[in-house]
Amino acid sequence: MWQAIRRWFDPSDLRAVGRTPDYRFSLANERTFLAWLRTGLALVGGGLAVAQFLPPLPLRHLRETIAIVLLLVGGAVAVRAVDHWARTERAIRQDEELPASRFPAVLALVVGLGALLLVVAVLAGALGQR
């Protein structure tokens, strides 16, 4: 595991593998990485916004739980983005099949489930105020 993390920070190690690919593939891989990074930053920003601006919710500590989950998922997306970038770049340089990932599906399910739980919390709050 530590060797994989070290590879993220050592571009010479990555360039020593395989052969130099067409730069368009490397740039496309980098754009995908940046898109994932923006997603992670948006989740972190959402977590901070929830913690600072969302009024207290009817369920105890729900606001804090939502904020912490968003912050943790945002951090996980950022870490996963750099790992996927490095594995994809290595595969491109070695002319191998690109690495498969279940992470987009897992992230979509987590976001969808989180949205559903928030709908339930909003409805519970609205019904509780009547």
UniProtKB/TrEMBL annotation:
Residues 24-91 form the DUF202 domain. The chain crosses the membrane at residues 33-54, 66-82, 103-127. Pfam families: DUF202 (PF02656). The keyword Iron-sulfur does not apply. It is a multi-pass membrane protein. Coiled coil: none annotated. InterPro entries: DUF202 (IPR003807), IM_YidH-like (IPR052053). One of its GO terms (cellular component) is plasma membrane. The keyword Transmembrane helix applies. It is found in: Cell membrane. Keywords: Cell membrane, Membrane, Transmembrane, Transmembrane helix. PANTHER family: DUF202 DOMAIN-CONTAINING PROTEIN (PTHR34187:SF2), FGR18P (PTHR34187). This is DUF202 domain-containing protein. It comes from Micromonospora rosaria.
